[in-house]
Amino acid sequence: MILMTVGTQKFPFDRLLKKIDSLIEQEIIKDEVVAQIGYSDYRPVHYSYVDFIPEEKFDILIQRSDILLTHGGIGTITKGLFLKKKVIIIPRMKDFGEHIDNHQIEIGERFAEMGYALFCKNIEMISDTIEEASKRSFREFHFSWCHVAKYIQSYLNQLEENKI
User: Phi-psi region for residue 29, left (φ > 0), alpha (ψ -120 to 50) or beta?
Assistant: First the structure.
């Protein structure tokens, strides 16, 4: 099963929802697809969807899934990685009115560079990316608070230096 989530921010991600619907209709995607579509206007025809999923049910769906297609939200990405799922990150983009900036591109690129997930910036490549994910092994994700603490300390040091 493929679980797709577009997040809960008040921006549509119709572009992704339509593409997945088209790929199912063309029988390119044959897996069951379940989606959380958030504030999107498009209503899928060829797969199950809900606007929002309560967290406890969302966790169950992630556990049941083989592949997690997700926007570039850190919380969803890391949840999928902790549960050892094959994660494909498709960023919401400012140019399409899907977000206020393109930070999700940076997030997706970084997770892909580290070998934790696949990044699909070009939505036309999503079927190839899904196929690649099904055949590929990924690096196991280990979150370290040490890195976060070092980052925060570095940031605080920069603030302190700029005060002087």
Answer: beta
